[in-house]
Design brief:
Blueprint: E1 3-8, H1 15-25, E2 31-34, H2 35-40, E3 53-57, E4 66-70, H3 72-90, E5 95-99, H4 106-113, E6 118-125, H5 128-138, H6 145-150, E7 161-164, H7 170-181
Parallel strand pairs: 1-5, 1-6, 2-5, 6-7
Antiparallel strand pairs: 3-4
Helix pairs in contact: 1-7, 3-4
The protein binds adenosine-5'-triphosphate.
Adenosine-5'-triphosphate binds at residues 9, 11-17, 36, 98, 100, 134, 138, 141, 165, 168-170.
InterPro entries: CPT (IPR012853), P-loop_NTPase (IPR027417)
Protein name: AAA family ATPase
Pfam families: CPT
Length: 183
């Protein structure tokens, strides 16, 4: 049985930083699976496409809000990511997953495919103002994505742990998770 930590939070909430700290501080090897890496597997023409994922700046919204649409190709890609996670866990590999769960059935699908494994869902949170400031500072993210995701990403999810990246550094958050999971 593998240990699988699933980090869920808005863009810029701090998931990747936390996942990298988990890898660095864990006692054993931990694979990092990132939703961003799966998005990059798509042909470039799908970077903003109704079939995959579309990003639409809502007119006149202040501050900016970018609505994200998910098409059938995008849904299939995300399902494939979750079943890939399960396939890696089936090989006995411990994992940390960096995800933005936007669809109602995403968490249930993880539970379904990872049934045999030790799964820990972690809410990665920060204030909306913090996420927006990070979005601006990073310069490589669409301004307004965090605001659109903010009310959606945690809606109806059940968590085992919560990490507030306003309050703890990536290393401190990683230590809390690793201690709880026993990694
Ligand atoms: N605990 C933290 N305290 C302070 N700053 C943080 C913390 N975690 C992350 N950051 C900063 O916030 C920014 C976004 O972090 P990160 O890339 O980890 O977010 P993310 O949730 O993976 O974003 P995305 O989903 O857009 O890839 C980075 O500039 C990072 O240095």
């Amino acid at each position: 049985m593998a240990k699988v930590v699933i980090l869920n939070g808005t863009s810029s909430s701090g998931k990747t930083s936390l996942a990298r700290a988990i890898q660095r501080l864990a006692n054993g090897p931990v694979l990092r699976v990132s939703m961003d890496d799966f998005l990059e597997m798509m042909p470039p023409r799908f970077a903003n496409d109704d079939e995959a994922f579309s990003f639409r700046l809502i007119p006149d919204a202040t501050p900016a809000v970018v609505e994200i649409g998910t098409g059938s190709y995008g849904e299939a890609l995300m399902r494939g990511m979750r079943t890939s996670v399960a396939a890696l866990a089936d090989e006995g590999l411990d994992l940390v997953v960096d995800d933005v769960m936007l669809e109602a059935g995403d968490q249930a699908h993880y539970r379904d495919v990872l049934g045999e494994h030790h799964v820990t869902f972690v809410a990665v949170r920060c204030a909306l103002e913090t996420a927006e400031q990070r979005e601006r500072d990073r310069g490589d993210r669409k301004i307004g994505m965090a605001r659109w995701q903010f009310t959606r990403v945690h809606a109806g999810r059940d968590y085992d742990l919560e990490v507030s990246t306003d309050e703890v550094s990536p290393d401190e958050g990683a230590r809390v998770i690793l201690g709880a999971v026993g990694m």
